[in-house]
Amino acid sequence: MDIDALVGRINELARKHKAEGLSEEEAEERTRLREIYLGNVRRNFRQQLDSIEWTDEEQGGGKLH
User: Between vectors from CA 28 to CA 23 and to CA 34, what angle results, nearest 5°?
Assistant: First the structure.
């Protein structure tokens, strides 16, 4: 499932939850989809952190690139 479809389904379940409530199966699906989404966010954030390079400048202090 691509990220747009994932977020769309999470939002659809959120709207239904507010309007009329969710069945047990839908609540489980929502929990599962949220975990998948958070896993993607964590993975992407980790990749961004791993790509940061610190460099030293002669004038002192470090600088992010």
Answer: 125
